[in-house]
Amino acid sequence: MLAVITGASSGIGAAFARRLAARGYDLLLVARREDRLRSVTSEVQELHHVTAGYLCADLTDLGDRECVAARLRQAEDLGLLVNNAGFGTMGYFFEADPAGQERMHQLHVVATMVLTQAALGNLFARGAAGTGVINVSSVAAFGSSPQNVSYCATKAWMNAFTEGLATELAGRGSPVTVQALCPGFTLSEFHDVLGMNRGTIPKSLWMTADFVVEESLRGFDRRKLIVIPGWRYRLLVRSMKWIPPSLLHKMSIAAVRRYRRRKQA
Question: How far is CA 140 from CA 45, 137, 146, in A?
């Protein structure tokens, strides 16, 4: 079977490529950086002797997005789509660059919607068990945070979208699986690009990309809809359900103020 992975040039996306290749999947890796894509593609081919290719695409671009969607519709051996491409920003929404905010919504929401529809149209028609879509969301989807408004909102949409798809598929008796993967702090380039000082976060909260992917695939095998890697994060999300929204709001503001003071120190 073929696995298509977006944002596959590093971090969680590259870890998905390595793990799925080890499972025997052929791969189509999608990202913007050709040099990194070429490197990951060569690595998985040499180690696991699978067929792997790559497609350079900016999924915020309509033409590039449709090119990837067309590949998903046409792939007769499609088994899995991993919507992993994403990025974060830090700063107050009303002061943020509008183009960057729009790009985030295009990538997290529009690209996820378009590619998922293309993949599910293919997978549902074939009715193949063990196939599906993994949408890489975040624990940020379960709350809101000042200076992180669009990221939390788009990830919350991703969770709701995936839950709705699961309901539709179950109602039609489809064996196709969908999952929202909700990791917490993960060691990858994500936070480097964000410009975040990792030292402000306790070491116990950091996870490796390999661990996140292993948890995701274990949950996928069990057809688990929401996967939150790490017991600390699962406990956090459960706890948040019992905290009044007004108190959560105050806690979020206090956390951001602490972060800003540490960053300025």
Answer: 34, 8, 12
What element of type H or E holds 151? helix 149-171
pLDDT mean by block of 10 residues, the chain; 265 residues = 96 97 97 95 95 96 97 97 92 88 97 98 93 97 86 97 98 97 84 55 87 98 97 89 69 61 52
| Cα–Cα nearest to 200, from 259, 138, 265, 253 | 259
Predicted pLDDT of residue 203: 82
Residue 125 CA, chain-centre distance (Å), reads: 25
- Give the residue numbers annotated as catalytic, written as ranges: 151
Is residue 258 helix, strand or coil? helix
Residue numbers of the domain that contains 14: 2-264
Residue 142's contacts (CB-CB under 8 Å, 6 or more residues apart) are: 156, 159, 182, 237, 240
Query: How many domains does the structure of the chain reveal?
Result: 1
Q: What are the backbone dihedrals phi and psi of residue 241, each rounded to the nearest 5 degrees, phi first?
A: -70, -20
Q: Residue 199: its pLDDT value, please?
A: 58
CATH number at residue 138: 3.40.50.720
Strands (E), the chain: 2-6, 26-31, 52-56, 78-83, 132-136, 177-181, 186-187, 207-208, 226-227
pTM: 0.89
Pairing of strands 177-181, 226-227: parallel
Q: What is the DSSP letter of 204?
A: G
Take residue 150 and report the two structure tokens written for it: 């669009």
What are 195's two structure tokens? 């410009």
Cα–Cα distance for residue pair 68/108, rounded to 1 Å: 15
Q: What pLDDT, on the 0 to 100 scale, is given for residue 47?
A: 94
